[in-house]
Design brief:
By secondary structure, the protein is mostly helical. The chain has two domains: 242 residues, no CATH class; 44 residues, Homeodomain-like (Arc Repressor Mutant, subunit A, Orthogonal Bundle). The protein is 67% helix and 0% strand. Helix 3 packs across helix 7, helix 7 runs antiparallel to helix 8 and helix 10 runs antiparallel to helix 11. The chain is elongated and about 75 Å long. It is a multi-pass membrane protein.
Length: 376
């Protein structure tokens, strides 16, 4: 049974064009080909990156945050209440108005007090500004290094300038050492992101982030096994180019360098729209969809790879919508509010408006008593 599954999984028609077999991709004196077993290197790479990230955030990002004066907002702690705490964990973090009224009966608290408790309790679980800064610092640093490394690996290659060269002699294309390390680091990084999702800053597009990371890992793995390495390196470089600006813009925003953050956001928006909505679909997907048919008949791997690219493109369109909405607010308010995907802190105080109202009520009562005492 297991042998049958293995034979089907590695059936040549799934991975390779017709008239090409795994035997054709055996290493020779002048050629070295990618092997599926080399993908296991991404696991120790991911673990190493998690360690490097910890050291980076502790000994580089945290001192930088101190130097820039970045401080976490002082949060008010939710009062101890076993009933509300149990409801918070077992039911929902955001109770409806009907649920609030029901909880009021159980606790004997007024609605306002219950609502404030839930706001404060949600804020306690949200990451502080310093954690966001450290996380953005790590991502910005990695994307910058990966992008520069990718350019170094690609700048002298003919397929960087002529996309038809991506398919020259495919799939019998020798693997280069620069391609091996580029792939290993990128796959290790995205695997480390998947492993750290539960600890990282939660965003509104959490599910989309998971889909993106899984789709990216699947694409990289498949492209490695099927020797789609040339187009894979181009896809990675295109993605990293705008991610640098996104994370860099966050850093300046967290540091309250508003003008610099605004400039970074404008540049990021332009680069994102050009790379993700123009270059990626009309150059890279066109390259994988049209040019291969000039050399071989379509096979399962051809359709699978292009479908996964389309999944990424759908996510690009979704994120472009979020960026456009953010740009709209920026144009009319002249201020960058931050990452619209982030789960922002709520006002957990007993609002100043209510406090002022209470004081006015007290002052009014005192004035009324004074007037009556004076005979008015």
């Amino acid at each position: 049974m297991l042998q049958t599954i293995k034979d089907w999984l590695w059936w040549e028609r799934l991975w390779l064009p017709e008239k090409v077999s795994w035997a054709d991709l055996q290493d020779k004196e002048d050629r070295t080909y990618a092997k599926a077993s080399q993908l296991y290197a991404a696991v120790p790479c991911a673990l190493c990156l998690l360690v490097v990230r910890y050291l980076f955030e502790r000994y580089l990002a945290t001192p930088l945050a101190n130097a820039l004066g970045i401080r976490d907002k002082v949060r008010l702690t939710a009062e101890e209440n076993p009933t509300l705490e149990k409801y918070f964990y077992s039911q929902t973090r955001n109770p409806s108005q009907a649920d609030v009224r029901s909880l009021c009966k159980k606790t004997g608290w007024p609605e306002r007090r219950v609502e404030v408790w839930f706001r404060r309790r949600r804020n306690q679980d949200r990451p502080g500004l310093r954690k966001r800064f450290c996380e953005a610092s790590w991502r910005c640093g990695f994307y910058l290094c990966a992008f520069l490394g990718g350019l170094l690996a690609l700048y002298d290659k003919p397929w960087f300038y002529d996309l038809k060269e991506v398919w020259a002699e495919f799939p019998k294309q020798s693997m280069l050492p620069s391609q091996y390390w580029y792939y290993t680091l990128e796959m290790g990084f995205y695997l480390s992101l998947l492993l750290s999702l539960t600890f990282d800053v939660k965003r509104k597009d959490f599910k989309e982030q998971v889909i993106h990371h899984v789709a990216t890992m699947t694409l990289l793995s498949f492209s490695w096994i099927s020797n789609y390495i040339r187009i894979g390196t181009l896809v990675m470089a295109v993605h990293d180019s705008s991610d640098i600006l996104l994370e860099g813009g966050k850093l300046f925003n967290y540091a309250k360098w508003e003008q610099t953050a605004n400039v970074m956001f404008v540049i990021f928006t332009i680069v994102f729209m050009v790379t993700r909505l123009v270059i990626f679909p009309f150059w890279l997907i066109h390259c994988t969809w049209v040019y291969p048919l000039e050399r071989f008949d379509p096979f399962f791997g051809y359709y699978f790879f292009n479908i996964m690219l389309m999944v990424l493109q759908i996510l690009h369109v979704y994120w472009a919508f979020l960026i456009t909405r953010m740009a709209y607010k920026f144009v009319f308010s002249k201020q960058l509010d931050g990452d619209v995907r982030s789960d922002e802190e709520e006002d957990d105080s007993d609002s100043q408006k209510n406090i002022k109202h209470k004081m006015n009520h007290i002052n009014g009562a005192m004035n009324g008593a004074r007037d009556r005492a004076n005979g008015h």
